[in-house]
Amino acid sequence: MADVIPPIIPTNPVTPELLAQIHAIVGDRGILTDADAMAPFTRDWSGLRQGNAAVVVRPGSTEEVSAIVKLCNQHDVAIVPQGGNTGLMGGATPWPAHTGVLLSLGRMNRVIDVDVEGFTMTVEAGCVLQTLQDVASSHDRLLPLSLGAQGSCMIGGNISTNAGGAQVLHYGTTRSFVLGLEVVLPSGEIWNKLRALKKDNTGYDMKQMFIGAEGTLGIITKAVIKVWPKPKDVATAWIAIKDPQAAVTMLSEAHSASDDTVTSCELINRTGIDGVFRHVHGTSDPLPHSSFWYLLMEWSSTRAKADGEGGMAEKMETFLADMLERGLALDAVIAQSEAQAKAMWKIREGHAEAGRADGPAISYDMSVATTKIPAFVDQGIAAAKAILPNIRPQPLGHIGDGNLHYGFRAPDGMTREAWNQYTPAITRAINDLIRDFGGSISAEHGIGQEKLDELAHYASPVEIATMQAVKRALDPKNLMNPGKIFRM
């Protein structure tokens, strides 16, 4: 974690009287004060951030959330909202100086409605993403949000961070499929726009303020989300490629070759793959010969292939044969079963787990225009090597939407203490390059605690001032997830 100076946050305590009032609202099931019981909530997923809270409150309804927030507002007590606590930027983790409430939405996990014909689901914020994927699938529908943490992350947190994932190039980010929201504002009032409307032009689209706001403007309690027809014909390929430029060219041509059904396109490199094979049980190399660059590409059709048709796999095979002949692809294998496809995806999704076990590293969740990725990769590696010549590049990510988790591993044998001496200079060099390429320093993970200083450094004064004006208008006391996104 980068060294950051904690912001000034409200530190009014949770008094015994306030605690008793909260307990009266949520009961024994909804309150935790024991340090061991609170630890999974106050420590982040990576294990690198340890925060503090006087109490973890687990409300069971929107009305309970509203009542708790009203109490905290009256007593000027800060609140940190939390879903599955799987974020990587510390957005849902309280600061060590936090003396208030951590409010977990995990008990609010009902699927309220599935409108099969209308292609929508209405859900509570504490629903685990994979549960919602399974519910959609049971109704022959697809919830396309797909993340490595989908077994524990919650939809409210996904919406609050505008989660991305592996299928953004076809379906868009979370922002694009949220139709309606219910939100408890910092005052405790309930803003209810829980509507399954694709068109609503009545002034400001206020739900967009809360999507990606990381809980700083209110607490999302329910959502109406769009779902799609469930794919019936899926082809997944693991492809050794020449270089990132080959990846961009192949992706561009794959859109037409697949009848515009490319749903995922992931750029992967050998350094990361080898780490997965070392640390993630049940993974193995899909191809017999080693390359440095790979693509994991998936095409999906909602039309089931008829008897005698080759379907998506046949189209992909024809496409890959052309790519091999032209030297853009060096080798390729198409999954012959759902199990083989899942094994390929396990390699991609195992990078986070492997990264935690594989020694010091740093990763930049950044985006540039897709066609600029090859030049960015080359220039970024050169910039990092100018600072630390034997650094190990590990670019990885959703090349289809321009989002790379642009990572570097420490040289073999380097201690974390030595590595930390180099990371500030590497961060400045990479982020300056992102700026010069017209990109974003946070493509899908948000700002949280980790990137407070970087956002302040790179965002324009007008942008910061406008966001702060919105924050002050809705949360004048700065009680809602204070010290996240910016310092105020």
Please provide a written account of the structure:
With 488 residues, the chain is an alpha+beta fold. Among the domains are: 111-229, Uridine Diphospho-n-acetylenolpyruvylglucosamine Reductase, domain 3 (2-Layer Sandwich), CATH 3.30.465.10; 233-351, Alpha-Beta Plaits, CATH 3.30.70.2190; 359-436, Alpha-Beta Plaits (2-Layer Sandwich). It is 36% helix and 20% strand. The protein contains 17 helices and 18 strands. It has helices spanning 16-26, 35-42, 62-75, 129-138, 155-160, 168-171, 174-177, 207-210, 244-257, 270-279, 311-325, 338-349, 351-357, 373-387, 416-436, 452-458, 461-474; strands at residues 31-32, 55-57, 79-82, 101-104, 111-115, 120-124, 141-142, 178-184, 190-193, 219-226, 228-229, 233-241, 262-269, 293-301, 329-334, 361-367, 392-398, 403-409. Strand 17 and strand 18 form a beta hairpin. The longest helix has 21 residues, at 416-436. The chain is globular.
